[in-house]
Design brief:
253 residues; alpha/beta; 7-stranded mixed sheet; 10 helices; 38% helix; 20% strand
Length: 253
């Protein structure tokens, strides 16, 4: 059997954040923190989330959490930290160009202005380093409102219909649309989904790449990386289910 140190050199476990390591947009629980500490003794551990670094660290308990994971791939890996240090960053504004970006954002703002929902709050469009996040009810809604919109969206397909309109109106932009979390969806250039982080992972010599995520369905923001032939992937239903599956897979006590 390989020694723990050898496994850390060859094997990495990558985890989605929302719904996998933490409850959606909530703080990591103590039992998960302790589990990740034990797991890190056996294999290399990384997080890959669509949110920006500030939001991910907020869920993980603050800036010091960067040092608790070997890798933190925020914005799908367009911003990459390794052992607590920033090693890579890409910028969607520069990549797309200001004129095309404004046309896209203006269309979204108009569409949102004509959309009737149970409620609307604030921060509907957020431009991050590696993606554009669009939240029809607004990102500043409360947790109770997030839960309410998630149920409403399942019935009325607000995000799905919005994405279809964007695909129809911007067919030449070569963009990918990915539903994640409870209230929003991400927009980014083709190839900038969570698979983007795998380039760094492979460059660092990992031979076995496990991925764990809750939105592995088509259109979910874990779908592409979960179905990539470079990963061995598992669909989870909650942080507790994550612990159960990983424990069984790697015999973590």
């Amino acid at each position: 059997m390989e020694q723990a140190q050898d496994l850390r050199k060859t094997t990495i476990c990558l985890f989605d954040v929302d719904g996998t390591v933490t409850p959606p947009r909530q703080i990591i629980k103590k039992n998960m923190e302790e589990f990740m500490d034990r797991l890190k003794q056996k294999v290399t551990v990384g997080l890959v989330g669509g949110s920006d670094l500030a939001k991910i660290l907020e869920q993980l308990g603050g800036q010091n959490a960067l040092k608790n994971f070997d890798y933190v791939f925020s914005e799908n890996g367009l911003v990459t930290h390794k052992n607590g240090e920033l090693i890579f960053q890409e910028n969607i504004c520069r990549f797309i160009g200001e004129e095309k970006l404004q046309k896209f954002i203006n269309f979204c703002l108009k569409y949102l202005s004509e959309l009737w929902l149970p409620f609307k709050r604030g921060t509907f469009i957020e431009t991050r380093s590696g993606l554009i996040n669009i939240a029809p009810p607004g990102r500043s809604c409360s947790q109770a409102e997030r839960d309410q919109f998630e149920k409403f969206d399942k019935e009325h397909k607000i995000r799905e219909n919005f994405i279809q309109k964007l695909k129809e109106n911007f067919p030449d932009y070569n963009l990918v649309y990915s539903i994640g979390g409870q209230i929003s969806f991400d927009v980014f250039p083709a190839g900038w989904d969570k698979r983007f982080c795998l380039t760094q992972v492979q460059a660092d010599g990992f031979e076995k790449i496990y991925f764990f995520g809750d939105k592995t369905f088509k259109g979910g923001n874990d779908y592409e990386i979960a179905n990539d032939p470079r990963t061995v992937s598992f669909t989870v239903t909650s942080p507790e289910n994550t612990i159960q599956i990983v424990s069984e897979l790697l015999t973590i006590a």
